[in-house]
TrEMBL record:
Transmembrane feature ranges: 512-536
Keywords attached to this entry: FAD, Flavoprotein, Membrane, NADP, Oxidoreductase, Transmembrane, Transmembrane helix
UniProt GO molecular function: flavin adenine dinucleotide binding; N,N-dimethylaniline monooxygenase activity; NADP binding
Gene3D superfamilies the record matches: FAD/NAD(P)-binding domain (3.50.50.60)
Signal peptide: none
A Pfam family that the UniProt record links to this protein: FMO-like
Protein name, entry field: Monooxygenase
């Protein structure tokens, strides 16, 4: 079998690795695989669309792959430069370089009459095109990544307008300039923080007022929503985020994993020395930084006046707009759109990502074309999900009999619901999606199996650490290398990683808030509810058997 991979970001590299090593796990013939990358180096977004002092917003334990762990000497949150260096080491460790064609652009992918695909590509600097015939294709990059620029009337009045993809260094802010940042996500927060380190005159960050993300099953979400807000309020006097005193959206969060700019946003709203504040802070108060400068938070603008250059907003009762009414008008010198990207696949004119209805990876009509890494979790990280997607797709190509049925009704448990006009329609809940893919591959061990592994393991402390990491830790991919078709081949490798490296993430968490409220209470409450429902369903099934009627399961299907 021959397979083409498009894109040398983390998703493409991990897909390539599982393709060329699949025969070691699945007892099949080796796969011949080639990766095509337009740029002259690997790394994808982390190498080619980054900026000064950028770092990952998810921890190194989560963003690195299951069988190639980060150095203990690395910081918890890697800079983009360090992460790209990690990817280089990953390529060397798994001998990927001989399979990678850099500076090579895929122009077209056409289906062949007798099955398979014809890849037409062109090397940089060459006027000739070449062909590569293959049986399957993994799309791990949008060849055309276009900045998403929403319309803002009067934006042409601003002297300098750029998209965040064009921002690279602090020196681009200039001196004594008013900076307008449109959006409030992680990148916007990073850029806002960098602006605070420069001799800027004023920095304004605009956010959208959107409805909160909804899920099909809300009870567990309500618990964690209440838990997060209450804990944040106890710790820092704000339910929005750690130290974020302004900017709540629809009484929800614009919860942000990058909080470098938060002190500058919150500084004008620091709490007064009220009795409630003193009582709370005497118990469990994290000191709030009090910077001398501040970022003016604002709602989304309506327009920029074409004659005066003044920024205007729609009428609103939001507290940040009330504050702005008492300040001088905003006349931006530099406008930065931090509004994301639109991806397109010109080499696949007849197929779009929206057709990938099977686990958000491939379409039921043609599993030989996969989209890896095009999901987006609000918490968590994309690279580990890409690893699980690659595992499932390669398993489907080579040993589909080892997969459990990929039931479409399971998707409601991990897909996020979006407004119809939302730019992003591919959100997933990280923990639920990771666990679902593991279940599909029969890679998710049961708790009793984990206990047995811990008792039998030769790794020191595994008898109690392994079950606790499994139960209390996030769904790190290493958990799903203990069993199943992709079980690590080196004896006790996954156990060692969990007991040594990932155990530290449990130790750091703290007892009452990190373990009791975050893990033990929901497991006991919702585990009890699940057990009660299972018991009720079993009794109803027994009752129907006694009466001779049809027996159905919880999904309304006959048993």
């Amino acid at each position: 079998m021959r397979v083409a991979v498009i894109g040398a970001g983390p998703s493409g590299l991990v897909t390539l690795k599982y393709l060329i090593t699949s025969h070691l796990f699945l007892d099949t013939e080796p796969i011949e695989a080639v990766l095509f990358e337009t740029e002259d180096s690997i790394g994808g977004t982390f190498a080619h669309r980054t900026y000064e002092d950028a770092e990952l917003v998810s921890s190194k334990q989560l963003t690195t792959f299951s069988d190639f762990r980060p150095s203990p000497n690395e910081p918890d949150f890697l800079s983009t430069d360090r992460y790209v260096r990690y990817l280089h080491h990953y390529c060397r460790h798994f001998k990927l370089w001989n399979h990678i064609k850099l500076s090579t652009t895929v122009i077209r992918i056409e289906p062949k009459k007798n099955g398979g695909h014809l890849i037409t590509y062109q090397k940089k600097g060459s006027s000739k095109t070449e062909n590569y015939e293959c049986d399957a294709v993994a799309v791990c990059s949008g060849l055309h990544v276009t900045p998403n620029i929403p319309r803002l009337k009067g934006a042409e009045k601003v002297p300098v307008v750029m998209h965040s993809s064009e921002f690279k260094k602090k020196e681009q802010f200039g001196v004594d300039k008013t900076i307008l940042i449109l959006e409030s996500g992680e990148t916007a927060m990073d850029i806002g923080y960098l602006a605070m380190q420069c001799p800027t005159k004023r920095v304004v960050m605009c956010h959208r007022d959107v409805h909160p993300t909804l899920r099909n099953h809300m009870l567990l979400w309500y618990y964690y929503d209440l838990f997060i807000k209450s804990t944040l309020w106890l710790v820092a006097g704000s339910k929005y985020s750690l130290g974020q005193l302004i900017g709540g959206i629809s009484d929800d969060l614009f919860f942000n994993k990058s909080n470098l700019a938060t002190p500058y946003i919150s500084s004008p709203y620091l709490p007064t020395n009220s009795l409630l504040h003193r009582i709370r802070s005497s118990c469990i108060q994290v000191p709030l930084p009090q910077p001398s400068k501040s970022i003016d938070l604002a709602p989304w603008p309506s327009n920029i006046d074409s004659s005066t250059g003044i920024l205007h907003f729609l009428p609103s009762t939001r507290p940040e707009l009330k504050r702005l009414d008492s300040l001088p008008p905003i006349i931006p010198d530099i406008l930065i759109y931090v509004t994301g990207y639109t991806q397109s696949f010109p080499f696949l004119p007849a197929l779009t990502y929206s057709s990938t209805r099977i686990r958000s990876i491939f379409s039921p009509g043609d599993p030989t074309i996969a989209f890896i890494g095009f999901i987006r979790p609000p918490f968590g990280a994309i690279p580990p999900l890409s690893e699980l997607q690659a595992q499932l797709w390669v398993l489907h190509l080579r040993s589909p009999s080892k997969l459990n049925p990929l039931n479409p009704e399971d998707e409601a448990h991990y897909k996020l619901l979006h407004p119809p006009n939302s730019r992003i329609q591919y959100g997933v809940e990280h923990e639920s999606y990771a666990y679902q893919l593991a279940l599909d591959m029969d890679s998710a061990p049961s708790f009793t199996e984990i206990i047995r592994l811990g008792w039998k393991s030769k790794v020191k402390g595994a008898w109690y650490k392994l079950p606790l990491v499994w139960a209390l830790g996030a769904n790190f991919n290493v958990k799903f290398r203990l069993r199943g078709p992709w079980k690590t081949r080196e004896k006790e490798q996954a156990e060692t990683i969990m007991v040594e490296e990932l155990w530290e993430t449990i130790e750091r968490r703290g007892g009452f808030f990190g373990v009791v409220l975050l893990s033990l209470v929901p497991m006991e409450v919702f585990g009890g509810i699940s057990f009660g429902l299972w018991l009720l369903e079993s009794l109803m099934g027994l009752f129907r058997r006694v009466l001779g009627g049809p027996v159905v399961n919880g999904k309304g299907k006959r048993l």
